[in-house]
Design a protein that fits this description.
alpha/beta, Rossmann fold, 15 strands, PfpB_PPi_PFK, Arc Repressor Mutant, subunit A, 9-stranded mixed sheet, globular
Amino acid sequence: MFKTNNMKKSILQIVRASYEPKVPKIMKRVIEIQEGNPTESVSDQEEIKKLFPNTYGLPIIQFVEGTEKKQRPPTNVGVILSGGQAPGGHNVIAGLFDGIKNMNPDSRLYGFLMGPVGLIEHKYKELTADIINEYRNVGGFDIIGSGRTKLDTEEQFNKGLKVLKKLNVSALVIIGGDDSNTNACILAEYYKRINANVQVIGCPKTIDGDLKNGIIETSFGFDTACKVYSEMIGNIQRDCNSSRKYWHFIKLMGRSASHIALECALQVQPNICIISEEIEAKNQSLDDIIQYIANIVAQRASNGDNFGTVLVPEGLVEFIPTMKNLISELNEYLAHNETEFKCIKHSKQRKHILDNLSHENAKIYESLPETIARQLTLDRDPHGNVQVSLIETEKLLAEMVKKRLEKMTSEGKYIGRFSTITHFFGYEGRCAAPSNYDADYCYSLGYTAAELIGNGKTGYMSLVRNTTAPVSEWIIGGIPITMMMNMERRHGKIKPVIQKALVKLDGMPFRAFASQRDQWAINTDYVYPGPIQYFGPSEICDQPSKTLQIEKSNTDY
């Protein structure tokens, strides 16, 4: 497992290994810490403060140029890759490794294998220079593997503490998304409360793009994944415009937010892109969505265009208000009756669910195709979420639009041909070789995590800002994880979690999309972005996502 010698490499990987991530100029100088004012959680302040008395209210940190380099003792650090893969994770570890070695060459880095379970079960390996160098600037999490085990019990914390003490590890870096960093926050509080002398630092990872706020500009991996998806969508659109006979329904990753769908739409200009947050805000039904798509299909057909592309966010069903209510009731029921439900024969599970739902939700559940209904009752992930990637929303929409068009044909409202092809782009983008932006951003995140450790901080997330500027001007520091917390219902209980960042309908990226989508719907204004560029002028190699560029611009839409 995790063999690193004699790895087969492509020419790109061999050349890419020599790429030296560009870094903020502050990282090349003596660094001092500058602390801001005390912070508070994004909401539920009193509840969060009671739950995190030792790590609540910490200041935001910025690293600035200092005058005297401090001599620091050797530090042993542990690192965990948690949750789904995201391009750039290896560079976070490389930056962390270089950072702790810069503080003291005798510092050591240990990787816990297959995610948090490696900490609990004491499975680890030391990450030395020869291993780290094999993985610089490459995609994936295969250096130590990842997993979704949830760290949330004192028994787990204490088991982990035993191996940390055995290895003389005084700091643990958890690289993950909102749920994983929630775990990091809880772990930091516990170790602080029992005086374990173990710091815990988080890093913002998720291709979904929903781990950000007014201070954290983006989560790593989002830029690369969206560029990969946009290349594939562009290829489909080129084919679509060539054969002119298919409507392509393309579901894109994004469990709880539509950031990927929105970013890809801005890059490729599809005929239709559904934004889940808008559906919820307008209280639209599944029928409203079907009619919206069918109307555009009919209008294009009247112009002789019996083809097009539809982008669908992965988490759409959870944002349709009636479906959201159904899923919420299903979550509550399964949280308390999961064992009983699993003992029921598959052929009788649908009736069992119907018998235990409220009348209104039972009607909705009964109206769904059997495959979709069953997908809504599949096992939840370790954090209590519906596994929306298993719900074939793209096929549901394609099938229902076809039926609606048949009805419109009988009414004389549609004359055309409607043939569909469905796609789900998810895993194709999670382990791609990171773009220059993600390679640079991730390396800086890891190096900044090392600086937070060197300055004795715990309960912080590594922070890199001002990333639409040249890398030399990037700002590094840390944000208290408690600042991002709120209370939400999970597994039938109210728990503290990091608040997800959804697409803001009054934000400039959505407004930019909304101002152009009517034109894209009827005209064929496709853009074909092509593959990620790693070499060449900065304007084609180093640009961040369009979402981030628009957010940081002063353009009004």
